[in-house]
Amino acid sequence: MENQRESVIWQKLKKGDTQALDYFYDTHIQSMYNYGRKITDHEAVIKDCIQDLFVDIWKNRQTLPHPRSPKFYLLKALRYKIIYQLKKEKRQLQTAYLSHEKISAQVPSHEFNLIAKQLSEEKRRHLLKGLKKLSNRQREAIVLKFYEELSYEEIAAIMGINSQSVYNLIHQSIHMLKKYLAVEISFLAAQLFLQVLF
Amino acid sequence: MDYTHYQLEDFVLDHDFQQWVYRPGPEADQFWKNYIVQHPEKEPLLEQARQILLTLRLDQHHLEASEVQQLKASIHEKIAETEEATIYSEPSHVRLARQGFQVWLKRAAVFIGFLLAGSLLFWFLSLPEEMKYTTGFNETKTILLPDSSTVILNANTVLSMKGEWEKASERVVNLEGEAFFQVKEKPHLGHQKFIVNTENASVEVLGTEFNVNNRRQKTEVVLRSGKVKLSNHLIQDKDVYMEPGELAALSIERPEIIQQKVEPEKYISWINNKLILDNTSLQTVAELLEDHYGFEVVIEDPQQSERKFSATTTLTLDDVDMLLDLIEKSFNVQVTKNGKQILIRDE
Fold it and tell me: pLDDT tens across A145-154, in order?
């Protein structure tokens, strides 16, 4: 349904409708930026690549493919551009480990607030510590799976690996977070034990 | 679905469970509540899985609205540049043959550039001035247009037009926000068209009274009298003619024009500083609070937002406290106002 509507607008883009281009920009810019930030921390590189991507799409609009999902197309193309750009600038893929400071400095979105409200301060701290330990590729797979809600096949196609590897990346990440939850629970148990003692 | 052997990881990755955590709804709530009643030993596991899912969504980065706009503007600029470049670019073999002329060409180009810039400046100066009328939050304004048609601007609205209508074949205004139009017919000017432009559509009229609401990327036209033609900017060849008492709406999300019979007074009451709530959803009221008064509204429980109600008394639009009071009573919710923010939560 969603894809069908977007297909119609994509068709208009191919015919040279600038409003259609704006539509794709407006609808997917936050997803694209959010995804880009999982590949690199260089905000300027991400923004440049997003700009180049839309300019390229416009220039080549007549020969553009007709993807089943425009969003999938945009994310995949963006990933390709960012990685190409980083290689070109001889920068290694920067470790974009999520530090605790970074999360608190960020302007929280409406959704962030809603989610944060459902977790206690302490649990959140522990789980975020776990999140910090994940690799870039794990975070990349996670954002596509849990935020963009793509299938393993789609994620595999975007990241250029097979579905099994995607599954492994995600499974490892959850396993890691589980350990952080377990630590927290034993910590609480110890606290309770001490309280009983004294 | 059999969840007997499900471990923590399996729940996190289970599509239905994921959907419930991210988009809870009454049906899914019921299902998982039942499941916990039948398998109480699984409850801690489910809670952990839920916490992990929530955490996975915390890893987010967003662009500020201003950054989004800036980037968009630079894309437009780049596109304009490349389009100019393609017009003047030549195949490479031609360019090679002309290498000798390069320096001469460059000088000529600079000269022509100056000429163009000069004439462009002259042309700009001779253009009719753009006029702009704006209203702030909780403010309305009545404007007499050059053709003695009247427009009443609702709050938080911008209406702009190019002057010198006498010479033009059309009277064109651009609208962002909401306005009510009373258009005078111009038989002596050969029935000069009157056009209201929005991002999604344009309304073309002869003489008539109608309301245009163009907010949140949605255009909604309500016709009180006369006849108008609504041209769709989103889908070509999908124009419609409207009859009095009709509402026509379209948006980027639903680009086909939808027409329905309505009570026009309900949509136009704002021109008399009145608010009619007739089977109006809490979501609609929240949008009104944001668009008209400039509040930022959070409805804590999203399920609340589709609830509808009707008010027997007519409300005065500029008395926001009375409106908030009524929302509290009719929806049975608690409304907290903190500066420019309003929180609506279950009582």
Answer: 988 888 888 8
- One domain, residues A75 and A127: no
B41: DSSP letter: G
Distance from CA of B75 to the nearest CA of A (A): 5
Find out whether B305 and B286 touch, Cβ atoms under 8 Å.
Answer: yes
* Closest CA–CA distance from residue A188 to any residue of chain B (Å): 15
Distance CA B211, CA B262 (A): 13
Number of domain units in chain A: 2
- Domain of A167, CATH number, reads 1.10.10.10
Would you say residue A100 lies in a domain?
A: no
Alpha helices in A94-162 (DSSP H): 100-105, 110-118, 121-132, 136-142, 152-159
Residue type, B111: F
pLDDT digits (tens, 9 = 90+) for B156-190: 999 988 766 766 777 889 999 999 998 877 665 55
Residues on chain B touching A33 (C-beta within 8 angstroms) = 61-63
**Confidence check: pLDDT of A101 > 50:** no
Residue A48 lies in a domain: yes
Within 8 A of A58 by CB-CB distance, chain B residues are: 79, 82
Tell me chain A's radius of gyration from C-alpha atoms. Answer: 20
Residues B136, B220, single domain; the answer is yes
Q: Is B172 on the interface with A (CB under 8 A)?
A: no
- Rounded distance, CA B24 to CA B95, Å? 64
Residues in chain B closer than 8 A to A109 (CB atoms): 60, 62
Residue among B21, B15, B79, B91 at smallest CA distance from B49? B21
Residues B134 and B95 grouped into a single domain: no
The model's confidence at residue A52, banded by pLDDT at 50, 70 and 90, is: very high
Query: Does any domain span residue B72?
Result: no
pLDDT at residue A49 is higher than 90: yes
* CB-nearest partner of A119 from B51, B72, B82: B51
Contact B54 A175 (CB under 8 A): no
**pLDDT score, position B9:** 86
Mutation target among B8, B62, B76, B299 for the A interface, most CBs of A within 10 A:
B62
The pair phi, psi for residue A13, each rounded to 5°, is -60, -45
Boundary residue ending a domain (A88, A107, A138): A88
Which chain B residues touch A149 with a CB distance below 8 Å?
A: 18
Number of domains in chain B: 4
Range of the domain at B331: 273-346
